[in-house]
Amino acid sequence: MSSSLNSCIAEGPASGRRRVLMLALAALPALLWPLPAAASTEVLVGMKRWGQGSFRRFGFLVYEATLWAGDDPLQPPLALRLDYKRTIRGRAIAEASVEEMRRFVGNESQLSAWGEQMQRIFPDVTPGDHLTGVYRDGVARFYQGDRLLGIIDSPGFAEAFFAIWLDPRTSAPGLRADLLKREAV
Q1: Distance between CA atoms of residues 4 and 101, nearest Å
Q2: SS3 assignment, position 56
Q3: pTM score > 0.85 for this model?
Q4: How far apart are CA 2 and CA 9, in angstroms?
Q5: Which of 26, 9, 27, 10 minimizes the C-alpha distance to 18?
Q6: CB within 8 A of 144, min separation 6: which ones?
Q7: 112 inside domain
Q8: What CATH number is attached to the domain comprising 123?
Q9: Number of structural domains, the chain?
């Protein structure tokens, strides 16, 4: 303990208030520092944090992604959190998702229906916003923070949606590799 803190403590009744203030100030950085990318603990039950990586388009950082999974990061349950670094309209997120899913799904009418569902669910995002997709029991749930945005319970949707990041045919193989690395505990 520093000598100035010792002298404050030894000063008498006011020293208790000073001590509390000093401890509160010391704890302030821990309270204000952003926590590692996490989603609501309720949706992550049975999952462990796997990898984390960045997605860039034309050199610009678009989002940082974090993957949670059970023992196998290629099988549900899965959760993927995207921390956005740019302003993007929800409609554009849905359209980009459909374009990426086209790598794995050849049924255009199915992709169109999924695109419409995602457009109703995905909000516009700004830097600092995050969305989390959760894949359990063949169903995809989407959250903004702890708030459920919507559910897509269409056969094949959750698998195709998560394939955007986890399938070997992804358009972002470096991000896939980062997500599949098990972080040290």
Answers
A1: 62
A2: strand
A3: no
A4: 11
A5: 9
A6: 123, 129, 130, 131, 132
A7: yes
A8: 3.50.70.10
A9: 2
Q: Single out the residue of 124, 53, 126 nearest to residue 93, CA to CA.
A: 124
Phi, psi dihedrals of residue 76, rounded to the nearest 5°: -65, 150
Tokens of 180: 């599949």
Domain limits for position 60: 48-180
One-letter identity of residue 86 = R
Q: Per-residue pLDDT for 179 more than 60? A: yes
- Pair 23, 52 in one domain: no
Cα separation of the two ends of the chain: 31
Q: What mean pLDDT, rounded, does the chain reach?
A: 83
User: Encoding tokens for residue 58?
Assistant: 């034309």
Token pair 């708030």: residue: 147
Check whether residue 53 and residue 83 sit in a common domain: yes
